[in-house]
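Researcher: I'd like a candidate sequence for this fold, 251 residues long. If you have to choose between options at a position, lean toward the conservative one.
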């Protein structure tokens, strides 16, 4: 059985790690380079770096900062934010990325998924999906959650998979930063519908939430930010408890 992955996420704005609730009210959470080194030491399985205002500000990801982070870690490194074309992904690969995460650009130009998968391989391409319930439907949102689309979440995820996405990073905006637990109902529905790994994101507040998401949805990985950034959960402790609950993890 494949080990479940624990992934801290660095949401970066103006060179600092930030964290909010439901994608707003951002507060400082520290230096991304220091945090990255710390997570690598703690035994995180991977690290995600999201330049959260690159798309809105219509600019590229902060390549020099990415290089500084990459030098501090020895675990797989995913980068997202402002990736609109092959050249952007290539620059990040050269800066130290193992994978890239695309969100808004993929929705606006779905063929970008095909191009990236063909150029770099499917394992390199993570499609991030920010979703929020509107009425009785889960709707895909763009621009750091600011802009609702016409796309229903499950339909879009299936299309992304068919185009060559290697993984899905699914963030429930309704749960994000609330610490009430992951959106296990949605995550199970998505995980059952696709054949590629799903990373759960949005809502982690306790060790039990990680136990629940793996037991109830069977997703491949769980991502969190504030509980790790502020030292509320230490990764070695989390992995120890997951193991006690018969959930396979790398210690």
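Model: Candidate sequence:
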């Amino acid at each position: 059985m494949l080990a479940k992955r624990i992934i801290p996420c660095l949401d970066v704005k103006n060179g600092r790690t930030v964290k909010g609730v439901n994608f707003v009210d951002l507060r400082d959470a520290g230096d991304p380079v220091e945090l990255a080194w710390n997570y690598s030491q703690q035994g995180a399985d991977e690290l995600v770096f999201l330049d959260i205002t690159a798309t809105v500000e219509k600019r590229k990801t902060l390549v020099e900062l990415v290089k500084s982070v990459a030098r501090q870690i020895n675990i797989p490194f995913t980068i997202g934010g402002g990736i609109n074309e092959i050249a952007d992904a290539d620059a990040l690969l050269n800066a130290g990325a193992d994978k890239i995460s695309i969100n808004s650009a993929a929705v606006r130009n779905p063929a970008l998924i095909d191009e990236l998968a063909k150029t770099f391989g499917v394992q390199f391409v993570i499609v991030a999906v920010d979703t929020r319930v509107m009425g009785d439907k889960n709707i895909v949102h763009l621009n750091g959650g600011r802009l609702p689309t016409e796309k229903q979440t499950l339909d879009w995820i299936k299309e992304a998979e068919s185009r060559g996405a290697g993984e899905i990073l699914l963030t429930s905006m309704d749960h994000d930063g609330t610490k009430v637990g992951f959106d296990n109902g949605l995550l199970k529905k998505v995980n059952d519908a696709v054949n590629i790994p799903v990373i759960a994101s949005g809502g982690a507040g306790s060790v039990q939430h990680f136990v629940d998401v793996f037991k109830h949805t069977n997703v491949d990985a769980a991502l969190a930010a504030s509980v790790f950034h502020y030292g509320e959960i230490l990764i070695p402790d989390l992995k120890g408890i997951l193991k006690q609950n018969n959930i396979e993890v790398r210690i």
